[in-house]
Fold each of these.
Amino acid sequence: MGWLPLSTPRTNLRKICNSHIFTTQKLDANQHLRRKRIQQLLAYAQENCRAGKAIDIGQAAFNTTLNFLWNTIFSVDLADHSSDTAREFRDMISGITEEAGKPNLSDNFPVLKKLDPQGIRRRMTKHFGKMLEVFDCLIDQRMKLRQEHGSTEYKDILDTLLNIMDDKSVEIDRNYINHLFIDLFAAGADTTSSTLEWAMTELLCNPEALSKTRMELEQTIGKGNPIDESDIIRLPYLQAVVKETFRLHPAAPLLLPRKASTNTQVAGYTIPKDAQVLVNVWAIGRDEGIWENPCSFMPERFLGSDIDVKGRNFELIPFGAGRRICPGLPLAIRMLYLMLGSLINSFDWKFEDGITQHNMDMEEKFGLTLNKAQPLHAIPIAI
Ligand code: HEM
């Protein structure tokens, strides 16, 4: 979806996302699935807590997000936290986002396109091919079931899409469905888990912010109690922590590339028709002209402020803005608060041996998604 020009297929896919997948009603109806996945995440942390072992936070968050998406789409479990399937899937998705974020010589010298000098297209085709194979198989199985039984008892996204295809309320075919799944996994899993990893890293490096987050959770939810999505509104400090994480570590630092449809003037510059336009959200988040002490992690700056991440305040647009704003925003936000709030409210956390807040490696690995170059390993401690 992200690479399609404005066209009927694009509009149809957006319509499906906005009206059938990410509505408040749908998300409220399947929040029990997320609750179950959070319990699994906490059980995994508990196991490691007993063993005194560190957790790869990004990987654990990725598995949780992946499992949640997989369940909502296909009504089956994909992976537990130590499974090879989850790891393989993460490699595929990271492969896609890394390759998509690399500057491609062929964009500047179209004559090279066929030669694919950096091998980007070859590797992308391999990653996409593998994912499509898995989805194709799941769609086949479901279509067979529907043929045998007339309908199925699943009320998941796959059923919703097959119904739309059958009743032709929006024009889509099987190929669209398959590629929409790639979009949802490629756009949703890495971004969400990477943000969670950065939020945990920043909190562990800023003990005062961590203790304020914990105090708010304790007073509002009760120490160790599970968090519900309906609690989020009562947790302003946690919300500020997530916004501050988005400001410093936007998962999609350059949004998705745009193309000027006509010659346009912006701030005195001429943007010629067909020029590719990249919006540097990462730089906006660290602009001294906008933010005081831009490099410090200070969630307090958002307390009592109206700034949100829904594309209305251009100083903070981690999900983009306008017609192309991330359609998964409502789900991403719920997942993030739930994972972060639960991990903080259920455990104390400490760094692995030898790592402190002063020597923590904050380097970023640049791709379409801005991941932490060195994974955060943290040890859960019983509270
Ligand atoms: C922290 C989590 C996430 C962040 C920061 C994020 C950010 C973004 C951004 C910046 C864009 C491009 C918007 C633009 O260029 O204006 C985008 C597009 C998109 N996102 Fe997300 N996203 C997240 C989670 C999700 C989730 C959970 C899903 C779905 C399961 C999702 C699905 C998509 C899709 C399908 C697009 C392409 C939309 C289009 O081109 O019309 N995202 N996202």
Amino acid sequence: MGKTILEMIDIKKSFSGIYALSGINFSLEMGEVHALLGENGAGKSTLIKVLGGIYKPDSGTIKINGQEVEINGVSDAQEKGIGIIHQEIVLVPYLTVAQNLFLGREIKTKFGTVDMRETNRRAGEMLANLGVNIHPDTLVESLTIAQQQMVEIVKAVSFDGRIIVMDEPTSSLSNDEVEQLFGIIERLKAKQVSIIYISHRMEELFRISDRVTIIRDGAYVGTKKTSETNANELVAMMVGRELESFYARDYNDLGHAETALEVKNLTCEGVFSDISFRVRKGEILGFAGLVGAGRSEIMECIFGARKYQSGTILLNGKEVRFTTPIQAIKAGIGLVPEDRKKQGLVLGNTVGFNLTLASIDSYINGIAISDRKCQEVIDYYKEKLHIKAVADRVELVEAGSLSGGNQQKIVLGKWLAIKPDVLILDEPTRGVDVNAKFEIYSVINELAKAGIAVIMVSSELPEIINMCDNVCVIKAGKMTGMLGREELDQERIMQYAAGGEE
Ligand SMILES: Nc1ncnc2c1ncn2[C@@H]1O[C@H](COP(=O)(O)OP(=O)(O)OP(=O)(O)O)[C@@H](O)[C@H]1O
Ligand SMILES: [Mg+2]
């Protein structure tokens, strides 16, 4: 490593008079992977948007190759060699991969029409160059999120990007896909491309980054060489204190607990088959397995969001078969889906509105909605989940202006506030920072203590192991194991989830 390619010095940026960035320093060397770490709302995406020409900073200096520059808009940033893969995917879904790669710089035939053959050929080359195995004339909407992300990377690099920013690239990738992405990062490094990498997954930072810069509440905290630090130190820098014990779980005696939900031989052809389990009041039942094993689909069937061909579902002893989620919610089942970005946040409305949206029926006093009850619920969840914005009263802020992780917390809070009999959580801590994780575990624990039956689908084995009473392991649509709390360890779960034939 050596030459500094990018310097950002004392960058400040405010929204409505309040600082989201209050003086950030960041430097990047050629061929370096530099991680940017900070809690939800710390200012990571905002800093990146300043670099990408989306926001104009209030003050501060940006230097590229030692030259002071001003970045005027997105295409100016591209021309300066900066390529950004944002937290939200911005490809056009109804165009092909090749069309997306050449959007705005279409290759023309001599008759002035778009030369699709040449577009596809060049796109194919670009994909192959980075070892991405996707056909150029595939429609983007038919790609998985991971594949879309790969296409975004290919696109960013193809503008002759010397600085590539990845804002939480792995939050929805499976393990294999993460490995593929890391392969691409290695290739880019070898080409002396520099990478800014944002992720809440500590183990990734340790695998691929050379240095880590930590920011907290919009302020610069420090920069460390990855090889000279450890997770505890980084977390302490990030949250400003040492975290106590991470998992809070008071186990209930389930010996006499009533069964809240029982599923018998549930089958959804081509997706999963013959799934049977029960979850009791006060129990947390985990669902482990690889991404794509069919766990989310099982939950969707229970919730009335997907059709199934056979099997029986009993809720509090009574057979049910929901054909829409509304029926399931009315009967007392809640599901917080995996893809919370798509999940009904009214972005133009306030945080408070969104938090109470789904549970509003329970705040009715006689005929009117009790503002006091609403406010209590809002206060509880904004406290509990650390929902943060650059404003004093978060509940009055537009949900759309919150950081990615904070938006996820609102969706989670909205569902937790319903307090259903059975609560299904699909990857509840994806995309949220360590502090919020801790708080989410404590809220889940409290719900279980109050007698709610909780199902937790998670790919994070530590949270499965430390939070669940029992764990059902799914492999390729089949149940391969049901493990009790004493039997839970990573190797055993992985063996059931991915191992050979038993
Ligand atoms: N357009 C905007 N208007 C008002 N406030 C904003 C705007 N964009 C960001 N903010 C605020 O700036 C702060 C930093 O947000 P940012 O998105 O940079 O956080 P982040 O570090 O990327 O968090 P996460 O890990 O959750 O993605 C947040 O408090 C957010 O509410
Ligand atoms: Mg962000």
